[in-house]
Amino acid sequence: MTFFNKLARDEQGATAIEYGLIAALIAVAAITAMQSLGSTLSDTFSEVQTEMAA
């Protein structure tokens, strides 16, 4: 019974999981932002290329 009481009070595992979830959320936000920025830059460079070719 003492093992289960110690296990219930141990918060190190919960903290590690929380840090993992925060890191995953930051990664998803960064990937989303980079994809949006990448398509915007691609459109801009395509317009510049078209104008320079004309």
Secondary-structure element string: HH
Strand content: under 5%
Count of discrete alpha- or pi-helical segments spanning 4 or more residues: 2
Radius of gyration: 24 Å
Question: Which structural category fits the helices and strands?
Answer: mainly alpha
Q: Alpha-carbon distance between the termini?
A: 80 Å
Main features:
mainly alpha, 54 residues, 93% helix, single chain
Question: Can you describe this structure?
Answer:
The protein has 54 residues and is mostly helical. The protein has one domain. It contains two helices and no strands. The longest helix has 42 residues, at 12-53. The termini are far apart. It comes from Erythrobacter insulae. Keywords: Membrane, Transmembrane, Transmembrane helix. It holds the Pfam family Flp_Fap. This is Flp family type IVb pilin. The chain crosses the membrane at residues 16-37.
